[in-house]
Amino acid sequence: MPKKEIKKILVAGSVGQIGSELTLALRAKYGAENVVACGRKTKPSKKLKESGPFEWADVTDPEKLKTVCQKHAIDTIINMAAILSAVGEKNPQLAWHVNVTGLINTLELARELDLTQVLCPSSIAVFGAGCPRVDTPQETVLKPTTMYGVSKVTGELLCDYYVRRYGVDARGLRYPGIISAETLPGGGTTDYAVEIYYKAIEERKYTCFVKEDTRLPMMYMPDCIKGTIDLMEADFSKLDHHGDFNLGSMSFSVGELAAAIKKHIPAFEVSYEPDYRQEIADSWPQSVDDSAARREWGWTPSHNLDSMTEDMLTKLGTRHAEGRLYH
Fold first, then answer.
1. pLDDT score of 174 more than 70
2. Model confidence, pTM
3. Could you tell me the residue ranges of all domains in the chain?
C-alpha cells in the first residue's frame, strides 16, 4: 500500500480522557486548523474548544460523520469514542453500539472516501480466561468477560478485515490503564490508578475498589500520546500487525502504587473495599509483551512508576494550592 500523507485529522471522542490530550498534542504537531475535535454530548474544555475547530458529531450517526469529514476535507480519523468497561457493564447494548457500530461507520467512511487512515485503540480488556497473565503475548486466546472487551476484540478483527478486504489503512493498539494529571478517567476499571493521586493530594486517604495486590499494566499519559502518534506515523509497509498491537510501559500493584505515593506524602493511607470491578481486573493481564510494537514501529516508553508519581503529585499539588485541583 503506497504511503499517503496525513493532512487533516478528525479526532472522534475528543472530549474523553485520552482524546482531549491527544487532540491538543496533534494540534501542536500538525497545526491547530488541521485537527478537528469531535464530540457527542460532553461539553469540551475551554482549551480544547478555543485551540482549534470543534464539531458536534456522533460516530453512530454515519451521515453526520460524513458531513463533518467532507466539510473539513478530513483524510485521517482517530476514533477515540468508546464506552469503557465499568460503564459498559451497566449498559452493554450501548457499549456495543458505540464501540462496534461507531467503528464500522468510520471504516466505511475510510473506504468510501478513500481516507488516508483510521486509527481506533483497543485495550487490555480483550484478554480473559485462558491467556497467560504475565507478559501476555501479542498472539493469544481472546476470551474477554466484559462487553467492552468483546467489542474491542470485534474492533481489532474489523480493522484487520478492512485492511485485508478493502485495503483500508486501519490501525489499533491495546492500551493498558492510562494515568493522567490533566483529565479525569471516564468509567473504566483502572480508574483507581488516577483517583488515588487526587485523593492523596486532597484528603491524604483513599478507599480503593480493588484489592491491594491487584496488579495491572499501566501507562502515563505522555507515553500514551507518544505511542498513539508513533503508530499513526509508522510506515504501513513495515507493519505485520494492524489493529491489535500490545502496548506496554509499567506494571504495579495498588500496594506498590500507594507506597510510591507515600514516599512523597508519608501520611497517606489506603483502605480496600473491592466491588464488581475486582472480577474485571482479575480477568486482565498483569503485564504484556509489546515486542511486536517495539520491533515493527520502534515503540519505547519513557516513564516508570517513580517518575510518573513525582510528576503527577507535583502537577496536582500545584493545582490544589491554586484551588483548581479538578479544574
1. yes
2. 0.94
3. 9-177+219-246, 180-218+250-284+303-321
